[in-house]
Amino acid sequence: MQRATDLTIGRTGRSLGIPWSMVMEVAWKNVRLRYKSSLLGFLWTLLNPVLYLLIFLFIFSRAFAEVENYPVFALTGLILWTFFATTSAHVMGSLVENAHVLRSLAVPPLVFPLAQSLAGLFNLVLSFIPFAFILFAFGWRPHPVIILIVPVTLLFAGFVLGVSMALAALNVFFRDIGLLWNALLPAMFYITPIAYPPGLIPQDLRWIIELDPLHHYIRMFRTVVYEGRWPEGDAWVTTAGLTALALILGAAVFRRLRPGFIANY
User: Fold this and answer.
1) Is the dihedral of CA 169, 97, 110, 114 positive or negative?
2) CA atoms within 13 A on the CB side of 94
3) pLDDT tens, 40-64?
4) What's the CA gap between 231 and 173, in Å, rounded?
């Protein structure tokens, strides 16, 4: 059975022109190097959202008293946001940071964005374990629909990969992309209903968050984890469509700009 699986993966990798064994090796290396010589190691993955949560509890918990179990509400948004912000930044810089390898070896450039995406997804999955204990401390209990966290997470990871592939390709030619993205992330954080409930947004401004892709993923994630409900059919259609669109556009931008990578690293 294992041999058949390996052969299937091998054929798929060759058909896509992607050396998956190399992607996995680079991804694991990225995970190890990310926390090398760090005293806290993997705990840094938790530190950022936990600090945000403490700030939210201190400032917003009373302001949003109508939100039941506000810590769980806020944390379920912070988990996905942290993954989006950190993974997109790592993927965006992956080509430039590995320019010396790409110049000297016949390595497909797509290996490095894919590897950084897998490393980010690995960190996210691992972070679910301690986050579950934190949620338990605030009175959260899992529901049977919690299994849906798997497809929701995969859809979001696909969306992040698509966006990040385009950013990585553009960053090779225009280094201002990195600065612009770092400036946009705080704005996106406050536009997306992470620290506050969507119901507080005035009706005439609801269209803004409806155009925010992150809102749709976080809302569906909260439906599963925070509310313990099966997401509506339109939520699945919307997020699946956004993921497909991001992957198609990201791959198109990457493919279109790839011939000029060597000259612009």
Assistant:
1) negative
2) 33
3) 555 666 676 777 777 777 777 777 8
4) 40
What does R_g of the chain's alpha carbons equal in angstroms? 19
- Domain residue spans of the chain: 23-264
Coil/strand/helix, residue 15: helix
Length of the chain: 265
Contacts of 70 (CB under 8 A, 6+ apart): 56, 57, 60, 61, 64
Query: Phi-psi region for residue 166, left (φ > 0), alpha (ψ -120 to 50) or beta?
Result: alpha
What is the rounded distance in angstroms from the CA atom of residue 227 to the CA atom of residue 40? 32
* pLDDT tens profile 54-103: 777 777 777 787 888 888 999 899 999 999 999 999 999 999 988 888 88
Q: At what angle do helices 2-16 and 20-34 cross, to 10 degrees?
A: 90
Measured CA to CA, the distance from residue 12 to residue 187 in angstroms comes to: 39
Structural contact between residues 159 and 242, judged by C-beta atoms closer than 8 angstroms: yes
E strand or H helix at 259: none
